[in-house]
Amino acid sequence: MTTTNEQPGETDANAQEGPDSPADRVSLFSAAKERLLLFFSDRFTANVSEFFAERQPLVWVMALVIGIAAAYAAILFRLAIRFFQLPWLQTMDKATTAAAMQLPWWVILLAPATGGLIVGFILLRFQRGRRPHNVADVIEAVAIGKCRISARDGFLSALISALSLGTGASAGREGPVVHLGATIASQLEQRFDLAPGAQRTLLGCGVSAAVAASFNVPIAGVLFAHEVILRHYALRAFVPITISSVVATIIARVHLGNFPAFIVPEYYIASLWEFPAFALLGLTSAAVAIAFQFAIIGADRAATATPIPVWLKPAVGGLCVGAIALSFPQVLGVGYDTTDAALNSQLGLLIMLALLLAKTAATALTLGFRMGGGVFSPSLYLGAMTGGAFGLIAESIFPALASGEGLYAILGMGAVAAAVLGAPISTTLIVFELTGGYQMTIALLLTVSISNGLTQAVHGVSYFHWLLNNRGLFLHEGPHQHIVHSVRVRDMMTPLEAEEEATKPEEGPYLQPAHTLRHALRVFDETGQEWLPVVDAQSEDLIGWVRHFDAIDAYNKALVAAHVEEHR
Questions:
Q1: In a domain, 1, yes or no
Q2: Whole-angstrom distance, CA of residue 76 vs CA of residue 92
Q3: 457-514: per-residue pLDDT in tens?
Q4: Which of 9, 372, 466, 488 has the highest count of CB atoms within 10 angstroms of its CB?
Q5: 3-state secondary structure 104-126
Q6: What segment(s) does the record annotate as region Disordered (predicted)?
Q7: Which of 194, 226, 256 is a domain's end point?
Q8: Do residue 207 and residue 325 come from a single domain?
């Protein structure tokens, strides 16, 4: 008989203390809880540390300050336009057409020319590049200019544009305000040593605030900054840009009132059978947008080829605008009163078709001959005329189905502006917020998309990117194009060692510190060299070396950084 030394109950006790015992389960649960808490603690600490390391609280505060400053700049710019129109129109009201109709013909003819003479003097004596700066310069500053916009260029361009529009030049006020808002943002952010991504975000803050305050469109201001200026929708940039837009809108509403820029009746789509007509309107709007851009391009080239002194060109352009205004005073200035009349079905078919041609010519002459102003307001104007005329024709053909020229004018306004600016999303939101009309959402999206797509098919780029292409900057082709322009040899060179002699190198290929990455890569490719000397631009002494591998490495790192910024 087998005997054991186990005591009664000992087997049960051992069983309870096995791997599945309650004590072990408690221990495993505690360990898992500690690991989970440690994981969330580490993640929380890492995210908060990164948030403060990137100085996001400072960026948010600066976004608030920029929003306030840009809003007041937009208000003052609007007042400056009215101040310059007072001497010849005898009124500071925005309804310039009615006032111009009461004036003698020689005042209408000479007022824009006189303003052009003053503009020409400012361009010749004070303005860099002898041209007013605009939205394209803001895009360039974000892409390759390290977000630096000269205060001199910014405020002089604002003065030139206010003077031009106040004396009757046919252009828009929003583009100059966008450049002014970006100038203010650039001057403020230069006082802090911020990361490049934060600098670009703050420039976007100035743009969003300017658009929001100028149009009373906070949502569209945010989207415009992302779509046109930053060209991405990074979440890290969304908060400060929204802060600026909201603050600017509040300030504008306090001083200018809380109402849309255009007061229109509430329109409804009469029938779903109208959508083929909306699609055809998109096609028509594309034709108008294409013709408008070709007219500006043609006027610019004509002004460049004409042997007229720079200081005299704005006066010649102003004289031509005045001549057009003798028959069509509706082309003078920003033209919001005429746009509003089209949206409210107050214009006839023939006058809208005539104004379509007259405004295109007047705006092309204004911008081509270097008077100040933007293209957004003229695009809205031309779109309203296009849509209104199209609506009247559609109503005459299908009286039981057409919704009326007012609704078509709203759709045309969005379609032409989106095609010219190359900003279909933000333009759609701008039209919504400008008119307060949300009933035609689907129709507007259809016309905007068709117009934008066909314009891109013909032009390939928006008006702003056409201006940049003329400067050799092809941003629409992707981030690699602006990277090879923005990275310089000085950013990737290896300085001379102490024992190396800083003498002029022998004959052969060499680089200078200011040369772009694109130039360096071309020289490497043409010569097959692995190392190239870097010489000083003035003394031509050797100051360093660049390795082919380092140039490629700098390019790859810049691409990765751009990708990270666009997706955070």
A1: no
A2: 13
A3: 888 788 888 888 777 676 665 555 666 666 788 888 888 876 566 565 666 788 888 8
A4: 372
A5: CHHHHHHHHHHHHHHHHHHHHHC
A6: 1-22
A7: 256
A8: no
SS3 assignment, position 401: coil
How far apart CA 512 and CA 490 sit, in angstroms, is 8
Whether residue 146 is found in the same domain as residue 106: yes
Residue 181 belongs to domain spanning: 53-256
| CATH (domain of 118) | 1.10.3080.10
**Token pair 């003394």 is at which residue?**
539
| CA pair distance 320, 378, nearest whole angstrom | 17
Structure tokens at 263: 């007061």
Domain count of the fold of the chain: 3
What is the C-alpha separation between 345 and 348, in angstroms, rounded? 8
What is the spatial distance between Cα 545 and Cα 554, in angstroms, rounded to a whole number?
14
pTM (two decimals): 0.81
Whether the CB-CB separation of 549 and 517 falls below 8 Å is answered with no
166, with CB counted inside 10 A (0-12, 13-18, 19+), is buried
- Are 84 and 225 within one domain? yes
Same structural domain, 461 and 482? no
Tens digits of residue pLDDT in 109-160: 999 999 999 999 999 998 888 889 989 899 888 877 677 899 999 999 999 9
Position 281 in a domain: yes
Question: Is residue 266 situated within a structural domain?
Answer: no
How many other C-beta atoms can be found within 10 angstroms of the C-beta atom of residue 229?
A: 27
> What is the C-alpha R_g of the chain?
31
Task: For residue 287, count other CB atoms closer than 10 A to its CB.
Answer: 16
